[in-house]
Amino acid sequence: MSDILIESVLQEQRQFPPPPAFSAQARIASLEQYQQLCQEFQADPQGFWAGLAQRELHWFRPWEQVMDWQPPQVRWFVGGQTNLAYNCLDRHLTTSRRTKPAIIWQGEPGDVRTITYEQLHHDVCQMANALKALGVQRGDRVGIYLPLIPEAAMAMLACARIGAAHTVVFGGFSAEALKERLRAAQVKVVVTADGGWRKGAVVPLKPQVDQALADGQVPSVQRVLVVQRVGGCAMTPERDGWWHELQPQMSPDCPAEALDSEELLFILYTSGTTGKPKGIVHTTAGYNLYTHITTQWVFDLQEDDVYWCTADVGWITGHSYVVYGPLSNGATTVMYEGAPHGGNPGCFWDVIQTHKVSIFYTAPTAIRALIKMGVEHPQARDLSSLRLLGTVGEPINPSAWMWYHRVIGGERCPIVDTWWQTETGGMMIAPLPGATPTKPGAATLPLPGIQAQVVDRQGEPVPVNQGGYLVVTHPWPGMMRTVYQDEERYRRTYWEPIPPRDGQHFYFAGDGARRDEDGYFWVMGRVDDVINVAGHRLGTMEIESALVSHPAVAEAAVVGRPDELKGETVVAFVTLERHYQPGDALKQALLAHVVQEIGAIARPSEMTFTDALPKTRSGKIMRRLLRALAAGESPTGDISTLEDRGVLESLRPQPQ
Ligand code: WTA
């Protein structure tokens, strides 16, 4: 990490107070109420979390100690026993939620399943018994490699119910990436499907599992449970079994185990843009409480909401905000198997219209893709059921925020821009929609109980509007516990970059940020995505936002290229909106636009028009690959997470 701080050049002045009609109904209805919660935490941090844990979760045994902090190791609710699946299912069955839809699922071809809490509980118990019958015991690891179908949530909940840890591998990952993750977690049983639907086509999954397991490459795996989704696949006798054949034989009676608060809940491998994937470890009680309460706060969850988060369960967003957070709150969570593409550009808006979605949570990369598909699609649907919008995954460009606000939110829905990470378990910095005025591009303020700061390398807070490193200084219940079987990497990655001082430890998130005069956080992207032009550290995000604010630009990625004179120069890769043709005149116009928005310092020295950018399967731009291309090298290292390898071939920077 360099000593030079990141300079912030993009200034966004627009502000949107919470709509009064929204605040009037909201759980947290004013900034004063938010501040009061923050003060409660300040006055008694442990009492704050203990009070919430007491009120919001079911406990089989109370804890003896709220928090045991031996930096950087933390344990929460020590000595207590609970069960995440119990909190997501059983406790709702004695209320009117018993017959409420827990999951409304829509497959890409249009098939719909509505599953009540009662039914979900039934199926999860059967799945838990099936896992047991296949040899899974408390403490074992189960691999889940499924499309976005209800069985994915069932498998996760079944694991949580019996105290087995799951490791979900996104269905878009290759056999190689799957093998690596199954091996690393020493998985005993894999739950998969014959295949799933994605962008109008069947994507086979089981053959990937067969390939990953071939020749005993993952010796720990004993059995494979296969869900039928697309019509069948080859089965290996002795090892593989069909879920639909096993299910009727399984008892729907499977009491939830009383699990220790710190019992391993899941391992989720982050598709790191550099190096080997890290197995992020989350445990039972703290994660449950944190995802539960943040769902309630940030989505202002009400009993009759129909809530839709578009993430796949293969990512943390799917874990925390498709499955666990909503179900723990007794909400109706929508799952949609598909993704917008040329063949069905309006599919997201159809889902909202059909199921009367009231809360919609997606990623900036999806928003930009939807913008590109054209405003006529959302305009042709009834989106009036929406009352709240959210984003997650990367900084949202202010112009995309404004489109979301106007076109999708009809200027009446607050937007919650939520900053968090796989490592944090749940949302950390985000508006409370009834309380916090929003600004396009800002994640706004830390949630109650979260002590976030922007500091320099020595841990000194930086002045207002100056860029620095985003850190968290007090443990929170949802934080990761370690990197699976690699404590040393946990320390080195998260706790050592900014050394402790005066007994204060800094969780280093890896992101750059600045705070403005209202204390709002503007996340500027990963600090390794910073370009140093003639001694100015520029956040790639801000230059990209400047480009995207031009009407011709759909998406932009900016990287640095080593330069003898300036240290680095700015190289831009740009995809255009429909109806715009690449050409020199447009290039000059875009360069001038960046100069006008940010200044000559940020003017790209090279610009390449392209049809698509190289992205990870979770939609993050793989700048490492673009950096190599910009430097005239061939990309090296792990590209297993790249969504479409063809994209790389088509990209070669053209000098001005
Ligand atoms: C980025 C996703 C700006 C950030 C939940 C973080 C964001 C990384 C935002 C974590 C946001 C996520 N504004 N940046 N609202 N949300 N990020 O682990 O760089 O897939 O460190 O977790 O995404 O990505 P992850």
UniProtKB/TrEMBL annotation:
Binding site for CoA: 198-201, 317
Positions of the AMP-binding enzyme C-terminal domain: 542-620
Cellular component, GO annotation: cytosol
GO BP annotations, alphabetical order: acetyl-CoA biosynthetic process from acetate
InterPro entries named among the record's database cross-references: Ac_CoA_lig, ACAS_N, AMP-bd_C, AMP-bd_C_sf, AMP-binding_CS, AMP-dep_synth/lig_dom, ANL_N_sf
Binding site for ATP: 393-395, 417-422, 511, 526, 537
Residues covered by the Acetyl-coenzyme A synthetase N-terminal domain: 34-88
E.C. designation(s): 6.2.1.1
Record PTM: Acetylated. Deacetylation by the SIR2-homolog deacetylase activates the enzyme.
Free-text function comment from the UniProt entry: Catalyzes the conversion of acetate into acetyl-CoA (AcCoA), an essential intermediate at the junction of anabolic and catabolic pathways. AcsA undergoes a two-step reaction. In the first half reaction, AcsA combines acetate with ATP to form acetyl-adenylate (AcAMP) intermediate. In the second half reaction, it can then transfer the acetyl group from AcAMP to the sulfhydryl group of CoA, forming the product AcCoA.
Family per record: Belongs to the ATP-dependent AMP-binding enzyme family.
Name of protein: Acetyl-coenzyme A synthetase
Native organism: Gloeomargarita lithophora Alchichica-D10
Lineage: Bacteria, Bacillati, Cyanobacteriota, Cyanophyceae, Gloeomargaritales
